[in-house]
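Minutes, project check-in
Item: structure for the 542-residue chain
Input as provided by the requester:
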Amino acid sequence: MDNRLIDVAIGLALVFALTSLLTTAVQEAWSQMKGKRGLFLQKALVSFLGDDNAFALKVMQHPLLVSLAPQTKANPGKPSYIEASSLVPALLGHLIGLTATKVRPASPQGLIELLQGKAVPQEFLDGLVALSHGVENDWPAFEARLGGWWDAVNERASGWFKRDVQLTVFVIGVLTAAAMNINPITVATRLWNDEGLRAAIVSYASGEQVAQLAARAPAPAIAPSPVPAGDPAARLGALSTALQDAIAQAPAGDNALTHKRLVATLERVLNFKKSLAQLPPAQWSDLQPSARLLLDDLPRERLPAAVRLAQDQLVDTLVPRPPAPASQAPAAGPGAAASAPEGKPCRAAEDASLCAVRQRAEALEELQRLGLPIGWSESAQPQYFHGCPAGFAPAHLCWWGNRLVSLLGWLIVGLACTLGAPFWFDALSRLVRLRASGDKPQASSAAPATPAPPVAAAGAAPAAPLGPVGTAMHDATTDAERALTEAQVRAVQRALLIAEGDCSGWFDGKTRLRIQAWQDQRQPGSGTGALNQAEIDALLGR
């Protein structure tokens, strides 16, 4: 059974998957650096508040919203998500502060009347009037409608963020393909014509290293998601909201003692949030006693039910969280190559986002070492219009034709990256299983997977070992190649007259081409680029 078409599809899916990983890492680093989530949330809030930037900025300075984002006076941050349960009390508190009495009116209709002529955008005020129809004297119903309005605007902002992510991923994908010269057209052509390269790529795609990368592949960030209800930070936000609402309902003039206690409790809650941020999840349970004492200064008989409920939910979420287990990749199937070395760990002073970008780039460099036409070497340049001189030759139309092929390939990579790494790893897994379901290809050699050591001739000294035994080549394609050590592969490369500086100890693309040429020289038309046991013995002089 000829698996050439499936092998080419496996190679392209592998290229797209690893490029998508790199593109996603770059996009996440860019979003964090520019604060994209916070910017789109601020854009949604400005739209919600009648397109008045100054008014939206004042609302964002409310303590309930300021506490949702880590920030300092020198570097103010923006929250990436604001729940309606936090925004509505903060917004109402700001609006009440604009009135002459500074006291919450008895009805929503009364608040709207007091806001007439104040520094409130007319468009937003008209929206409040529309929301109040039918619930003019019902504060809970009015607040629910106000929260639903914010949720609808926030949902629209999620669409803005999604489109921005897709566009950013496409642009970064095209730029990455151009910088590293990743052209799927050239890759597909080379895979179709090079049997040895196809075997090496399929072996690598079936290995454990690719399975580990697939297990760690993140889905593209689509939109900011709400904080889970079980997150202590979310419960602290709900508790702060309930306390702020209680403060608004207990004016200082009526009950100064209760008002002061509520303000002091709110300050303790904000300090508690800082303490929580300094502890790892595994030690959250250490703060349970402190959480139970947060409301002890308040009279239990006057404590609103929402405040007590928020405290109980906070205590329930403060349980130790075990660290997430490391992803265990499935073992490679029979005949699959051993895994490639893991990427270099992050350096001590290296940013986590930049470390992820570097590790993804190293995975693409691994494909280049296997022999795929990636990079700016002469062999990786498209040559579909023949007769062009080598190098930079813009005076020839054929040179421009090849450049257009490169541009088309880069655009294809950009479009492929918008589908995300999980999509391509899933496609790769399906293609590998499809190939394995066909007829099992015959091995290049009938020799056993672990050949017995050669018997020395009578009177001859035993051959010295070339390296440690048992380290399989991850890019080997036959059982005989997998039995070689890295030092033995270098000896094979030297026997093929490869320069000492280019002897990598791996079956890279240059080595495959030399093997194929050496096989054709011995027997014309027999070159496959893969070695059997007899050919290895001949090269090593056994």
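Outcome recorded: Confidence is low (pLDDT under 50) at residues 220-229, 322-342, 440-474.
No further action items on this chain.
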